[in-house]
């Protein structure tokens, strides 16, 4: 191994990869939520369908899609590598242990929360991304141009109660994952300072709650307030 | 007993203690009753009482680590009722007093659990992994010669205080014991940042961070999940800021050192 691979396969190196990919994935959440807000526009889905067409065809977005996939893969791969090592570091556990006295539940269960998010992600991609990219959506004409009607797929999906429940539960898991992960990423990168760290911690908490609430409102809105 | 509380009533307790003959034997939790324990006793004195009983009965006494019994040497350990050094914050087991327990309590006592800290006997674990990490770079090289003047090198008070705070680490291993990953990051970070902050430590700054982290990984400690359990259980209050500093030191060293390995 050369110095580079050795650095990033050390325990600290892997945590640095986790932080960088984690913060990158967080930035993706912002873009995704802002785009999704067009679902609320009362135009029969025209704005959303035009937007999703742009996202599926713009070369810069398509390139970033590959970077995003790599971000997920590195984040997941290092999470597995770290978890395996961490489990092996304590082969015999305690008969009596009270970790709740010294740490938060989410900080101790990032792997579990991440797994819930991964399962959700597979369901989510299968339902929306796969038909949008590989075909299977109905066509719709907006201003004499034909688009895939991803909007109607969204609306129909969120009429199913258990589908909405999966989304809301996944967003709760994501919120807890981010509440620990956001500030933890800065700690892993060594970016702490008494002038900035209190703000980063407060901002990270608010960010996690607001972003996940924003995502969770979409299925709830279409389930409770939208008539097909 | 001078200074003892005349109103303190002796306590009867039930102890569940990890017994293990040696490194290669399987161990188990064994239950022992102890009677007439004074609330003024330290936790280790309570174990001394139990061991006297065991010796009188011709049984093997419980092996546990201890030395100064003043909370400064870092020799005592013990995972008591699910907490490193017991339920009180900012204290070592030797400074934990029986007044924090009540008559009739059941107390579980286990050794530190970590692959890098193999159980030597009963409650004693082998913490020589910490020694090897220290030997990998937890020092400064100083030439012998004339005695330098005191305060010859100016160091800002705030930096000196921070370095001193890091230097108060007694190397007991409670951070490893409390961490869900059995990570040694708090220990290593205290040792690295203590010297990285001071001018005397700058010469070996990069090799220190590189070599100590490499040794930490070789010893089989886990990675840091930033749960903060280590700092919460640390008897001397080593801060998580040190871990952030170690992350900075390590990344900086790896990216800029002359070491291509």
TrEMBL record, chain A:
Q: Report if keyword Transmembrane helix is assigned.
A: yes
**Membrane spanning residue stretches:** 16-40, 60-80, 110-129, 160-182, 203-226
InterPro entries documented for this protein: Cytochrome_b-558 (IPR011138), SQR/QFR_C/D (IPR034804)
Give the record's keywords alphabetically. Answer: Membrane, Transmembrane, Transmembrane helix
Please indicate if the UniProt record lists Transmembrane helix as a keyword: yes
**Which residue spans adopt a coiled-coil conformation according to this UniProt entry?**
none
Record's protein name: Succinate dehydrogenase cytochrome b subunit
